[in-house]
Write a structure and sequence with these properties.
Helix content is 47%, strand content 15%. The protein has 214 residues and is of the alpha/beta class. Bound molecules: 2'-deoxycytidine-5'-monophosphate. 2'-deoxycytidine-5'-monophosphate binds next to helix 2 and helix 8.
């Protein structure tokens, strides 16, 4: 039996992972999964249900309720996709992303999504979730460029956004994601690094497709 095709795309917020991964997945005929949806959904449910970010047992219990499908996330049958981008989850999100038991539970769910092949975007996909795949990419871009992209994204969704606030949020998450002890944001030793500053989505997609080993 041939092994399913797994492509890992990691990098900081705003590096272009979703836009690129969605297109790579389409081209390869496999689903695209944004792994951050799991962390965001746990953070949102914890906030909604008053679960403290150090109540490991109750946090872990939230994970089996989640279902991620076609770029949407559900808790049982409730669609949480719009809620998980609300700014009020930010503090919770960084705290919960550091809890090893929550990460383990999420990793198991993510591995099961790869049965039919997958392009998965995140922070630790090449280092922790699928370290065995030969297809690992790490996207970077300057803070200024990443802030501009996120602002444009918000405006397209019809949401308000403040550049200064956005810069503080992204810079804060960069520090939290790369300095945490469990599964910090960093390229796998064998990842292909791609700087996306001033490079359009098409070019990045082409670069990845050229490298993918089936
Ligand atoms: O990709 P995103 O910005 O939606 O991710 C939100 C947060 O979730 C991110 O700041 C840290 C956490 N996360 C993680 O720890 N590991 C992943 N693979 C994906 C996201």
């Amino acid at each position: 039996m041939t092994r399913p095709l797994v492509v890992a795309v990691d990098g900081p917020a705003g590096a272009g992972k979703s836009a690129v991964s969605r297109r790579v997945a389409e081209a390869l005929g496999v689903p695209f999964v944004d792994s951050g949806m799991f962390y965001r959904a746990v953070a949102w449910l914890a906030l909604e249900e008053g679960v403290a970010s150090d109540d490991v047992e109750r946090l872990v219990e939230l994970v089996p309720r989640l279902r991620v499908e076609a770029e949407r996330v559900f808790s049982q049958d409730r669609d949480l996709t719009a809620d998980i981008h609300r700014p009020e989850i930010n503090d919770n999100l960084s705290a919960i992303s550091q809890v090893a038991a929550v990460r383990d539970a999420i990793n198991q769910r993510q591995r099961r999504l790869a049965d039919q092949g997958v392009v998965m975007a995140g922070r630790d996909i090449g280092t922790v979730v699928f370290p065995e795949t030969p297809n690992k990419f790490f996207l970077t871009a300057s803070l200024g460029e990443r802030v501009r992209r996120r602002l444009a994204q918000k405006l397209r969704r019809g949401e308000q956004a403040d550049a200064g606030e956005m810069e503080r949020e992204i810079a804060g998450r960069d520090v939290a994601d790369s300095t945490r002890l469990v599964a910090p944001l960093r390229p796998a030793p064998d990842a292909v690094l791609i700087d996306t500053d001033g490079v359009d989505v098409d070019q990045v997609v082409r670069r990845i497709l050229e490298q993918v080993k089936r």
